[in-house]
Structure formats: C-alpha cells, structure tokens
Design a protein that fits this description.
Layout lengths: L1 E5 L9 E7 L6 E2 L4 E6 L4 E5 L4 E6 L6 E3 L3 E6 L65 H10 L3
Antiparallel strand pairs: 1-8, 2-4, 2-7, 3-6, 4-5, 6-8
C-alpha cells in the first residue's frame, strides 16, 4: 500500500514552493519523520518528513519543479512492499510558471548596443547675469552658491 507525500501548508499567503533538493532517492528505506525533501519559498525553507516508515517510491516532483500546496511530491511504500521501477521525475524547470522564482539570468557576456562617445559641453566661465536681464536664468542662484562659485572660479 502506498501513501502519498504531499506539499504541506507553507504559511499564510504562500501557495507554491520550489523543490530545492531531495535528501533521499527512490527505493531508499526511510524511517518515520525522517526528512525526505527540502522545499523553498520566498519566505521559508521547509523539510518535508516521511509520514511513516517504509521505502520511498516514485518521486513525482523533480528538483527545481514548482509545486502547489497539497500536490503530490512522491509516494511512500509500506516496509517490505515491492517497489515499482522508478520513473523519471517530471520537471517544470525548463518552463517554470511565473511566481516564486524568476527565470534564471543568462550566463556569460551580455551584448550591449554600440554607443557613440558624447563630447562634453564646455562650461561657461562668464559671470552669472543679473536677475531680470534677458540672459538671466529662470531663477537666481542662492547667495551661498554664488559665493562658492566665485571661490572655485566658476563665476
């Protein structure tokens, strides 16, 4: 008789997790409450324990797969039961659904568009025109800024 190992409740407002790594392989003997798999969310990392003693049967969710709360991770066969031939785990890692983890960033050099160098604009060395004149800026510089510009040779 097989028992399904399901994704436990992971906390308030958390509905999916990613299978981080399996601590046991299909066919391994496990004791009750022994950790089988680690699940990661954006908030927590949880170890899922074995609900009883037996042999880990078919692993349904592969490492890297995104799983929902309540979905089946694997099966646990009773001690001494014949274990079916392990089938390869299904993986959604190639096309993950948006949610918990963003898609991986590409590795290697990143191509950037060519740009032309920009000539720096020369700074005017003339004094700031008096307020009210046609060449005056929309607002006059603060007295402390004017003093600083004079000290540094900008005005």
């Amino acid at each position: 008789m097989s028992v399904e190992i399901k994704v436990p409740a992971l906390g308030e407002s958390v509905s999916t997790a990613t299978v981080a790594r399996w601590l046991k392989k299909a066919g391994d003997a496990v004791a009750q409450d022994e950790p089988l798999v680690e699940l990661e969310t954006d908030k927590v990392t949880v170890e899922v324990p074995a609900p009883g003693a037996g042999t880990l049967g078919i692993i349904v969710a592969a490492e890297g797969a995104e799983v929902e709360v309540g979905s089946v991770l694997a099966t646990l066969d009773a001690p001494g039961a014949a274990t079916p031939a392990p089938r390869p785990p299904t993986s959604t890692a190639a096309n993950p659904s948006p949610g918990v983890n963003p898609p991986p960033a590409p590795r290697g050099p990143v191509a950037r568009p060519a740009t032309t160098p920009v000539e720096p604009t020369p700074v005017a060395t003339s004094a700031v025109p008096p307020p009210g004149s046609a060449a005056a800026p929309a607002h006059a510089a603060m007295p402390s800024a004017t003093k600083l510009m004079e000290e540094r040779g900008f005005a």
